[in-house]
Amino acid sequence: MGCFYSKTTHLSSPDDPSSVTDAVKVDSANENEGDEENQISAFKEYSLSELRKATNGFSTGNIVSESGEKAPNVVYRGKLDNNRLVAVKRFSKQSWPDAQQFAAEAAGLGKVRHRRLVNLIGCCAEGDERLLVSEFMPNDTLSKHLFHWDKQPLPWDMRVRVAYYIAQALDHCNTENRKIYHDLNAYRVLFDEDGDPRLSSFGLMKNSRDGKSYSTNLAYTPPEFLRTGRVIPESVIYSYGTVLLDLLSGKHIPPSHALDLIRGKNVLLLMDSSLEGQYANDDATKFVELASKCLQSEARDRPDSKFLLASVTPLQKQKEVPSHVLMGLPKSTVVLPTILSPLGKACARMDLTAVHEILLKTGYKDEEGAENELSFQEWTQQVQEMLNTKKSGDVAFRDKDFKSAIEYYSKLVTMMSVPSATVFARRALSYLMNGQTELALRDAMQAQVCIPEWPTAFYLQALALSKLGMDQDAQDMLNDGAAFESKRQNSWRG
């Protein structure tokens, strides 16, 4: 079928280099790499139209929150005009009646930046809509890696790292006087492009101005919340303890049941059997003891974030091993291209009209010799018919009669002894204009077979993949198209 292949690179969104005070970065050699445009953007207010476009009209296919549509506040994957992936949290319409209050609260949270947080980069308070925008984390949630893993369970050393990094995030929030984190659980911990765990910044903001702060099963909420309906800084420590239980057991078990096991000295029954004993018993015991301290029924008996850090820091045994290696995840090595041709830019923003204009202007100039060969053979009736079919297809394509263009180009493909990359490219765009995205991707792949390093073929594949929602593969194709374009320009200069 062709040379199409899927990689697993991710859009990079490096950590804020200003927030490196007290944490140990595992992959320190790459700590501050990344060009300026890949750094965390300044907090901004987005228009509703921008976020509606970014999320395909808040399409259900873009929902990424684990609880789905039934949640009072839904999180969507979005792609901005600059091709950057983001997460967009859409609050229920009654959550924050005062738009100015919502925007002010969001802007304040936008200043709380740290490399262990999924940083907030924008908001929208327009009409009845209240939305938050954050960095996008491509490697799923802690819940997915603990409870619903496919290839391998989360290794013990990675579980310890999660506990350490989240303790760092909570401690930083405390230093920024953001001591309340709402509903800390395994769904709030996400993994970035390096496989590093980060704490969602969405939890720093209430689900509503006067509403409840917890949405999980009441069996897992702090005792004081059950009594008063209010959360205090110590409530966050309790919730951290429930996350420790998740990490220990690989299951979501009620704290009361876990404490019964701990008191009965049945710690082994608490441990995740999928770990197959691949951990030091002393380390597991210390982990259990910390969880027990966090889950004390009286808030005053629980430790603070400094104690959490002091407790989990000595348990780090593989600091030098990057997170993506521990987790068995591929590491992104391709960065977002900084320079795209007009065609690349048009494909990146899925502007079919612009792509059409560029393909018309380009014509068949990338297929050197093909026109001359056809002209030389014009005297045969078969070739004359082929040329007439090609001309009819080109006229239909020029006039935006894409259905006819598909018919003529399809007939032409069966007639030509040497396939034409340009014909496949034009038919690919015609398919896109006709809403036949998978056929468009097939033709773009065939164009690449004809000219293996043709940037146009890669850009059209990227466009089709974006339409199919395969954003990472689409980004790969944009990267490859830009690389081949740069290579071609350099060869011309030479």
TrEMBL record:
The keyword Lipoprotein applies. Gene3D superfamilies: Phosphorylase Kinase, domain 1, Tetratricopeptide repeat domain, Transferase(Phosphotransferase) domain 1. One of its GO terms (molecular function) is ATP binding. Residues 1-21 have a biased composition (Polar residues). Residues 1-22 are annotated as: Disordered. Its EC number is 2.7.11.1. PROSITE patterns: PROTEIN_KINASE_DOM. This is non-specific serine/threonine protein kinase. It comes from Cephalotus follicularis.
